[in-house]
Every structure is written in C-alpha cells, then in structure tokens.
Write a structure and sequence with these properties.
Order of helices and strands: HHHHHHHHHHHEEHHEE
Number of domains: 3
Largest sheet: 2 strands, antiparallel
Helix content: 55-70%
Number of strands: 4
Length: 375
C-alpha cells in the first residue's frame, strides 16, 4: 500500500501554511495597551475555537483536501513506484479522484519508466547479440559435426587396449557397429591400417614359417628315405636263416642240397620283405630297425617248424603267414594287431616293437605297446 503523503506534498503544505497564518494572526501586530490586550484575547479565543473544533472532528478546508488525497493514495494496494504498471494504476486512481494534475504526472512517469525499461531491454538484447557467436557457415557446420563424431568415437572406445590383433579387431567392431567408419575418423582408419600391416606381417611370417617347415619336412623326408633305402645286402637273408639254423636246424633228411635250398628260400623271402618295407616311406620302422625281428620271427612254430612239412613232411615254412606277422608287429596295416591270446608269446620272443605294435588287452581294447623291447 502506498505510504501516506507520497503524493501529498502540496496539500500537506497547505495545512502547514494555514496553521502558520492562524498563529501569526494571534500576534499583537505592534499594538500596545488596551488594543494589544484586546487583539491578543481575540487571537486566543480563535485558537481555542480551532482546537475545540479539531477535538470534535472538524477540519479546515486544507485538512479535508489532504485527507481526500490520502484516501485516493491508499486505494491502490501494494503500490510499487518502481513498477510502471503500478504507477499507471495510481494515475487512474488520482484522475478518477479529481486530482487531475497528479494523475497526469503519474501517467507521464509511468510512460517514462516504460520507455526506460524498453531501452534497458533493447540494450540487453543488443549486448546478447554482441556476445552471441556468429552463425556457422555450412562448411563450419560440417567441420563441427565431424569434430563431434570424432570425439564420440574416442569416448566410445576410451580405455580399450589395442596391442594384439584380437584387441584391435574388437575396437574396430565397436566403431563399425556405431557407424564411426568415415574417412575423417582417424582412429578407425589407423586401426584398419595397423590391422592390414599386421596381417601382411603375419602372412609374411606365416609364409616364412611355412617355407621353413617345408624345408625341414623335405630334409626329414630325405633323411627318412635315406634310412629306408638301407636294405640288407643280397645274401644277408641267407646269413640270418643260417645263423638261426645252427641251433634250430630243419629236418631235411640229411640232404645238404635240400638244406641249402631251404635256407636260400627262407633267406630270399626275408630279403624280399625287407625291400618291400623300404618302399613304404610312412613305415614306423626302417629296414635297419626291422633287422633283428627277421630272425626272431622264426621262433613262431606256425611260421617255421623244423620237424614237419615241405620235404617229405619233415620241415615247414609259411611264407604268407611270415609276411602277415611282420606287417602286424611293424604296424604296416591299421587293422592288424596282436591278439591277447598270443600277447605273452610275442612278448617272450621279443616280437613286440615298443611304440609301434598294436596289442589287444583282456577287455578287447586296442592300444600301442609301450613296454620295454626284449633284446
């Protein structure tokens, strides 16, 4: 609410002037004697009358005008002299209350305040325009968008390792899934370049390793061929058989010619098998490794029986069974194995080759013999 006297200066001044005039009239005015006394008594009476009238609610014209003015002021609630709208509202109240000069002054003040506020708003807008960065050109907008996407890509893969090929591929996939594969995204382009370089390096290394492996394989194959070519010399088969016949002579009825023929026949079969073995480059045993088994196989009676067969049912030698048995103990065919029923016999005669011969156990399970080799 407006404060009392806010617009009442001239009316308050009228009351003050009225009081001063009344008090002046109560003075002697320079009179003396009875005239002065009479004049003073008149002034005192007038003052007493004034005070009495005031006490009974009476008002002078100036006081009445001041009171009416103040009532108009008080009729505007929450009056704010700094708000042009509030001042304009006061202007209307004064005008309607008959205080035209004051109302017009308030209206002019309101308009002046609005002008000032408009200027302030204009200056603020102008300053904001000056502070605002200029609009980007299409090229600047394009570059700004690129920069934003580069930063987004960097944030997306922040902290991810990129040391191994697998790590680089993982980062590359995340960028691809996010659509960050443009040429200006250097992170992705560098990854692709590094991956390509590493791939070429791996290809080169792989090619070198493959070439080295091929070279080693070639050397190994050549060495293996050289070992496989070391077959027994001609006549060595006869010596193997002859040595065994010393303690296990065949019964040929005492005929030396028959004995010689029998020995040469067995020796020739052994030499023939040794040559066939040398042609199998994948053989698990070389002719040199097979050599001691050629004599041991003669211990099997179903292969060589010195007492019956061949000449007049005296000595016997089974060429087909000998080859099959050698193929078994040398694992020349994957389906050949020493049955469990003959395992102890083969082992006692030194016919099991460790790491080569396939044997059958009591449960009919097949496995490679890993026991010691009987000399």
């Amino acid at each position: 609410m407006a404060q009392k006297g806010m617009f009442g200066n001239q009316y308050q001044q009228a009351v003050t002037d009225e009081t001063a005039l009344r008090q002046q009239q109560s003075q002697t005015g320079g009179l003396t004697g009875w005239a002065a006394i009479t004049n003073a008594m008149s002034g005192i009476g007038s003052e007493i009358g004034y005070q009495g009238g005031q006490a009974m609610g009476g008002q002078t014209p100036a006081q009445a005008q001041q009171a009416r003015f103040q009532s108009v002021i008080d009729s505007v609630p929450d009056y704010d002299p700094m708000n042009p709208e509030s001042v304009q509202q006061m202007s209307s109240a004064l005008w309607n209350g008959g205080f035209y000069d004051e109302g017009m002054a308030a209206l002019n003040q309101s308009k002046a305040m609005q002008v000032d506020d408009a200027k302030i708003a204009l200056y603020a807008a102008q300053k904001a325009d000056l502070d605002r960065p200029p609009a980007l050109t299409p090229e600047q907008s394009r570059l700004a968008l690129r920069e934003e996407r580069i930063n987004q890509a960097a944030e997306l893969t922040k902290g991810m390792p990129r040391e191994t090929t697998e790590e680089m591929l993982a980062v590359s996939k995340i960028l691809e899934d996010g659509g960050y594969t443009q040429g200006y995204i250097s992170q992705y382009q560098n990854l692709q370049s590094n991956l390509s370089s590493r791939k070429n390096t791996e290809i080169n290394v792989g090619a070198k390793e493959k070439a080295e492996a091929a070279r080693i394989a070639k050397i190994t194959l050549a060495a293996r061929k050289a070992e496989m070519e070391k077959v027994m010399p001609s006549g060595q088969g006869d010596n193997i058989v002859g040595g065994y016949f010393i303690n296990n002579p065949p019964d040929v009825g005492g005929d030396t010619a028959d004995l010689t023929q029998f020995k040469e026949t067995l020796g020739g079969e052994i030499e023939s098998y040794d040559k066939r073995l040398s042609l199998n480059i994948d053989s698990k045993v070389t002719p040199a490794e097979a050599y001691p088994y050629y004599e041991r196989i003669l211990q099997l009676q179903d292969i060589y029986d010195p007492k019956q067969g061949w000449f007049d049912n005296k000595a016997k030698f089974d060429t087909r069974l000998m080859e099959q048995t050698l193929n078994t103990i040398f694992a020349q065919q994957p389906d050949l194995f020493v049955p469990n029923s003959r395992l102890m016999e083969y082992r006692s005669k030194g016919l099991l080759v460790p790491g080569v011969t396939i044997i059958e156990d009591f449960n009919k399970q097949k496995s490679v013999f890993l026991g010691y080799q009987i000399k």
